[in-house]
Write a structure and sequence with these properties.
Blueprint (H helix, E strand, L loop, with lengths): L7 E2 L8 E2 L2 H12 L5 E2 L6 E2 L2 H8 L8 E2 L8 E2 L2 H21 L7 H13 L32
Antiparallel strand pairs: 1-2, 3-4, 5-6
């Protein structure tokens, strides 16, 4: 008897998501590609497309940040899982960049900042309009960058 897995593809233009059940595909279509938003925030009245999105949205009304980066030496915390996911992607990209450079123990902080400036400024917690964002000068920066020690052989 074959244990073939059913693979269902989202047919929405530009989406390449695959699902193993009709239920998961249907849920994806309803929450991602539908304008149907049935979950209302009791604090601000905003409607969201899923219970999960509503639960994470609630954190925007408090100082609570329940999603922590578990990367060794990082510990940054976020209000939403998507913010943590984007942050973790930065760690993966930085590691890939370091592997390409074959030099993991040294990387200029300015290079790191330039490489991620666009992503950092697009985060939800930063101004999105023409508000002035003042960053510390490089001499004042207290940021520590922890890079993994890798042995490239």
């Amino acid at each position: 008897m074959s244990t073939r897995k059913l693979v269902l593809k989202c047919n929405f233009a530009g989406c390449d998501k695959l699902y193993s059940t009709k239920y998961n595909l249907k849920r994806h279509l309803e929450t991602v590609h539908s304008n149907l938003k049935r979950f209302q925030c009791r604090l601000c009245g905003k409607y969201l497309s899923s219970k999960q999105n509503l639960n994470e949205h609630i954190f925007t009304h408090s100082s609570e940040k329940p999603f922590a980066c578990l990367e060794l030496g990082c510990g940054q915390i976020f209000r939403q899982r998507s913010q943590l996911s984007n942050h973790r992607k930065m760690h993966r990209e930085l590691l890939a960049l370091a592997q390409q450079m074959k030099k993991v123990t040294e990387i200029k902080l300015t290079t790191l900042l330039e490489y991620h400036a666009e992503k950092i400024l697009s985060e939800e917690d930063y101004p999105k309009n023409n508000d002035l964002l003042i960053l510390p000068s490089i001499t004042e920066c207290k940021m520590k960058v922890y890079l993994p020690s890798l042995d490239f052989k």
